[in-house]
Amino acid sequence: MNSSEEYSFNNYLIIFTTVLLIIFLRLIIVRFLKHRRIKFDQKSKDVFIHFLRIIINNLDGLEYNKNWLEKDQKAIEFLKKNYVLNAKYRSSIATELLNLHRQLKGNAANRLSDIYYKLGLDQTGINYLTQENTTFQAKVIRDFTQMNVSAALPQIKKLLKSYDATVRMETAIALLRFEGVSALHEIEEISGLNDWQKIKITETAKRMGLENLPNLKLALYSKNDFIVELSLILIDYFDLDFDEKALVNIISNLNYRQLKFCMPLIVKSKSILLIDELFKVFYLIQDEYTQTEILKNIKFLNEIKLISYLLNIYYSDKFDDAVRLEAIRSAYKISLHVGVEFTISEIALSDEKMNMMYKHAIDPLL
Amino acid sequence: MISDIFLDIFYLAFSVYGSLVFMYYVWMVISAYIQLKKYRKSTDHVYFDKALSSPYTPGISIVAPAYNEELNIVTNVKSLLSLYYNTYEVVIVNDGSKDSTLQKLIDEFNLEKVDYFYQEKIKCNKVRGIYRSKNNLYYRLIVLDKENGGKADALNAGINLSKFELCASIDVDCVLDNKVLLKLVKPILDEGECVIAVGGTVKIANNSVIKNGKLLEYKIPSSFIAQMQVLEYMRAFIIGRLSWSSINGLILVSGALGLFNKNVLIRAGGYYTETVGEDIELVVRMRKYMQSIGKYSKVVYIPEPLCWTEAPEDINVLIRQRNRWTRGAIDTLIKHKDLLFNIKYKSLGLFAMPYWYLIEWFSPIIQAFGLISVIFITVFHTMDMHLLLLITLISLSFYWTLSLIALILEEYLNKERISPKFVLRMVLLVFIEPFIYHPITIYAAISGNIDYLRGNKSWGNMKRKGLK
Question: CB distance from A9 to chain B under 8 Å?
């Protein structure tokens, strides 16, 4: 090996060692940062718990009034000055407070809410709303919704048309919490929500309580599919009245998801008008799961005249076997309930497949 | 003269292949990191419980084939019946077990044979009976007893019986995260029907504390071979799967755990029974089917650990397992060779498939060939030993670097779960692996290639201790 080759070889060895060293250092830094973060989090938690202990010790009684924190001003100022104003502790303290708040109810939750405001966490949050970072925006809206920071509503509303779907969803949830379902007309402007986001909004709406719900009858006529879906879910959940014509309209639109959400309402109402409409469109449905879902619900109607409808489906080979099976099952269940003897034609009994469907339908374990 | 030509070809081939592999892995590491950050952001403040009672959440049929599982079947089924999800059923397929698997199920769950209308949407071996429990507590459970036909055949039978629009195929001996179904269904709720399959990270649970089918405490396996596999799985999942999912180039959803769109699965023809790599073959065929009907499809990977499995601790079992994986992959790559460089399939055809050929299939052969060549050159030619050392060091440093990056990403993902002891042990293993474990996997892959050429389609004896 000549000297230039040796030089080059040494260079490679140096590069090789450097790469490994960098990776090692990276790993060590990650470990170090993790350790530091854990220490910070633990310290923040300890400080906050210590602070809460002081406040609890100062409590005069369990009775709650708006000025209960006045005598704790010193402790609040100390926590604020030394920890809340320091970004590295603030996030952990806010998380700790919010986690605790989520688990509590009544006066205990109210007191934590007061502490949140006194520490100025609402003000620091508002600053994040104007920043471009959508992760922070979504988080702050979520925190504000939980802590009921209604003062931030004008800023939150501006994010209703954010390019980020998560921010849009959190905004919708915030509007529902702050304005009740009267916010539906604003949410109507939101589009492009995925099912996960719809779940979050509908579940929030369910938790709002019946007293906050306006008349949802008009919402069933909305052109926004999600608003219709949300209204159907809420009407079912809170057992509210609804306009049959609106439901006829929804059924005839043949939106499979909305059809599925209509079923509990049809079962509850037992409306002949709706049942007739449902069977009118049933033959037009191209999805076996929607058909099966409808038939599963039909059995709860317990109407004698439905048996012949269902038997027609069972006899028809236009439908998927799973649909025909569900039809005969529902027919059998209805017949048992209304006390009518259940019979099927000789043709069906001699047809092996139909006979097996029938046996399945009458098996008590299925 | 001839040896000079041979040497030139050797250097050229090494450079070209090495550069390609290097570029692939650099891209994989970068994209895995970006994807991981995206995933962390998307799962921040996600409360899965909200989906439990929502009418938007679809039903899931869990299909679990069981063959000679008498030891753990009852515990495993009970664990499956207690998952955190609202609308689901558990279909256990007894694939002609020779032991008392079926009897154990009948006794424990008070099963009775029923007149079930069974539709054979996908062809499979004869069904001997279908059982339901007389105890309402087990209303989710349905057991299908059939003649032995292998795992793919059993899965097909279970899918025929299943009633929901999504079906999760799982290995019955795996331990699942309690929220596994909620986590698997989220990508479908996020992105809609274009998601045809979802896979999750499979972790090794040898030596971990498991009670009633639930993982109570994760422990590093005591067996050296299993420890090596922990590192290998970490690299394969966190760098491999994650990077390919970032460009929608995934063709493999682990057979241990996967969620599928049942309609697409059935229309694509179900699991292919004539291969030992039914998991990879199915995903490729489902993607081809979606392409054939002009619909966009997506296969999503969740980097979170959702499933814990037992890794072989015996070298012979490990070799047989890897041999089978190799044969399965080759089978699929040859059967679906039309995807290679096929522009219709975009990133899948242009990047993912070449990767599978170049690295997953050819790499062990090239590595073995390289080793033989080095011996040959050293014996018959005065080779520059410094150059040889340099090549070895570069290859090793590259391999180590990849493993260390996988470890860093793993720690980034699971900050709370990874202990310093685990990190330290893994760092040590990173340096040992290329000398002890890697040659074993190379040997297994080479033997897999040879067995494939011989037409061997057997699974081989996969006897393990079982997770306790």
Answer: yes
What is the rounded CA–CA span in Å between residue A341 and residue A334?
A: 10
Residue B25, number of CB atoms within 10 A of its CB: 20
Q: What is the dihedral of CA B157, B161, B167, B170, to 10 degrees?
A: -50
In tens, the pLDDT along B185-242 reads 999 999 988 999 999 999 998 888 888 778 888 888 999 999 999 999 999 999 999 9
Is B54 part of the contact surface with chain A (CB cutoff 8 Å)? yes
Supply B435's token pair. Answer: 């000398």
Q: A-B interface: how many C-beta pairs under 8 angstroms?
A: 103
The amino acid sitting at A262 is C
Whole-angstrom distance, CA of residue B237 vs CA of residue B390 = 30
Residue for token digits 């241990």? B256
- The 10 Å Cβ neighbour count of residue A75 is 17
Higher pLDDT, A7 or A221: A221
What mean pLDDT do residues A34-48 have?
76
The pTM assigned to this predicted structure is 0.86
CB under 8 A, 24+ apart: contacts of B451-456: B451/B323, B451/B327, B452/B326, B452/B327, B452/B330, B452/B331, B456/B327
Find which of B42, B49, B115 to mutate to test the A interface (most A CBs within 10 Å of its CB): B115
Q: CB within 8 A of B413, min separation 6: which ones?
A: B36, B39, B40, B238, B303, B304
Q: Tell which residue, B466, B425, B305, B347, has the closest CA to residue B28.
A: B347
Q: What's the mean pLDDT in A8-31?
A: 70
- Chain B residues with CB under 8 Å of A34 CB are 411, 415
pLDDT in tens, A60-113: 666 777 777 677 777 778 787 777 777 777 888 888 888 888 888 777 788 888
Question: Which 3 state secondary structure label does DSSP give A60?
Answer: coil
What beta strand segments (E) does B273-333 contain? 298-309
Q: In angstroms, what CA-CA distances link B373 with A254, B9, B11, B214, B435?
A: 68, 11, 11, 50, 18
SS3 A92: helix
